[in-house]
């Protein structure tokens, strides 16, 4: 395939200063592929990266942001036989070093050599260049084939599905018929609702503060929704669960209120799994968890091949990203795209950018 030498890319020059500039098209190493990016979506992580920064991110003026992207393989390294030129692929963020204790144990999203490229660790769009560009390189470990019935836009969301699936696998899953409460109807929460339903949860309850999001959650499989600003969410969840509380609570909103609600709505002995990022320290009633013998699990990112499971659920039509994608922009309009996403303008949930 014909690959040009230069490309357009969105580079972070300063806090909140993302500019589309010309950059050389990167070359894939032996274990890498070059992807012509068709679609890249904005994630809350990108907002953190451009507003306050994240651990080990590349220097200002060099860093091409974006980590949720999909496209076509146009070039591949000498050892790559897993993929072919022309394959439609999507990517996950974390390529562990493959040599630390955590990577050897399958916990590559918690790699002990995070940010150390020399030792083999890569987090595309976090510690190395990402996908708000016409082209991006990826290690084969982070690449997945997109089934034919899934669009590039939708395929950018495999991390968004992989995250709740990883959460559910970290707490050991749930028994078919168990009740699952999801707190926070953002893109992760809306995916969590669909994953819980697809995996056989009984009652799926979604709690949040915005009516439109809760209504969307209902469309996507939450039989019960509760607006925590208007109703007594604790009483509501208890009323749906025989007075005991939900078997599993997934926290998809990084706030004190969300955590406190989880502690008060989970069944005695039930599990709480945190999917959300917490920007600030929170004060929670740990005593309650101890008294009720609750397990609290955390995850980082989309580990344990959960994106592969997510793609399969999407292929089967059990999980959908279509309703969650609300806006799309051209790469040149990336500032506008971030404005809409950050300001949640016009009900924005997931915003995709097309190079
Ligand atoms: Zn993300
Ligand atoms: Zn590692």
In short:
The chain has 355 residues and is an alpha/beta fold.
Give an overview in words.
- The protein has 355 residues and is an alpha/beta fold.
- It folds into 2 domains: 6-157 and 324-354, Medium-chain alcohol dehydrogenases, catalytic domain (Quinone Oxidoreductase, Chain A, domain 1, Alpha-Beta Complex); 161-298, Rossmann fold (3-Layer(aba) Sandwich), CATH 3.40.50.
- The protein is built from 11 helices and 17 strands.
- Strands 3, 4, 5, 8, 9, 16 and 17 form a 7-stranded mixed sheet that branches. Strands 12-11-10-13-14-15 form a 6-stranded parallel sheet, sandwiched between helices. Strands 1-2 form a two-stranded antiparallel sheet.
- Helix 4 (158-170) packs across helix 5.
- The two termini are 18 Å apart.
- Bound molecules: zinc ion (2 copies).
Name the features.
355 residues, alpha/beta, Quinone Oxidoreductase, Chain A, domain 1, 2 domains, seven-stranded mixed beta sheet, six-stranded parallel beta sheet, binds zinc ion
The backbone outline, from C-alpha atoms, is globular
CATH names the topology of the largest domain as Quinone Oxidoreductase, Chain A, domain 1
Count of discrete structural domains:
2
Overall pLDDT confidence = 96
CATH A-level architecture of the largest domain? Alpha-Beta Complex
Strand content: 25-35%
What share of the residues lie within helices? 25-40%
> What's the total helix number?
11
Q: What's the order of the H and E elements? A: EEEHEEEHEEEHHEHEHEHEHEHEHEHE
Number of strands: 17
Evaluate the radius of gyration: 20 Å
State the separation between the terminal residues, measured CA to CA. Answer: 18 Å
């Amino acid at each position: 395939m014909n690959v040009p030498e230069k490309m357009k890319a969105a580079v972070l020059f300063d806090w909140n200063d993302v500019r589309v500039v010309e950059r050389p098209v990167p070359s894939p190493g032996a274990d890498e592929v070059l992807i012509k990016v068709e679609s890249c979506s904005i994630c809350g992580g990108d907002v953190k990266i451009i507003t306050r920064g994240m651990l080990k991110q590349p220097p200002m003026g060099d860093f091409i942001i974006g980590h949720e992207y999909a496209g076509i393989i146009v070039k591949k390294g000498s050892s790559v036989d897993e993929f072919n030129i022309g394959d439609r692929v999507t990517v996950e963020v974390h390529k562990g070093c493959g040599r630390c204790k955590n990577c050897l144990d399958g916990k590559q999203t918690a790699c002990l050599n995070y940010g150390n490229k020399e030792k083999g660790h890569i987090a595309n769009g976090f510690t190395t260049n990402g996908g708000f560009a016409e082209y991006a390189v990826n290690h084969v470990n982070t690449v997945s084939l997109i089934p034919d019935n899934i669009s590039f836009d939708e395929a950018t969301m495999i991390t968004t599905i992989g995250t709740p699936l990883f959460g559910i696998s970290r707490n050991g899953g749930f028994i078919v018929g168990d009740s699952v409460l999801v707190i926070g109807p953002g893109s992760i929460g809306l995916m969590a609702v669909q994953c819980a339903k697809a995996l056989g949860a009984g009652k799926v309850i979604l709690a949040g503060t915005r009516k439109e999001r809760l209504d969307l959650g209902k469309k996507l499989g939450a039989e019960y929704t509760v607006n925590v600003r208007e109703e007594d969410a604790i009483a509501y969840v208890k009323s749906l669960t025989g007075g005991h509380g939900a078997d599993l609570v997934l926290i998809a909103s990084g706030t004190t209120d969300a955590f406190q609600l989880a502690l008060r709505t989970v069944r005695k002995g039930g599990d709480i799994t945190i999917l959300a990022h917490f920007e600030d320290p929170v004060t929670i009633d740990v005593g309650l968890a101890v008294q009720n013998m609750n397990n609290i699990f955390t995850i980082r990112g989309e580990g344990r091949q959960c994106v592969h499971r997510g793609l399969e659920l999407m292929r089967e039509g059990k999980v959908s990203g279509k309703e969650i994608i609300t806006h799309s922009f051209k790469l040149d309009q990336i500032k506008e795209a971030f404005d809409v996403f950050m300001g949640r303008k016009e009900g924005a949930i997931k915003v995709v950018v097309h190079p």
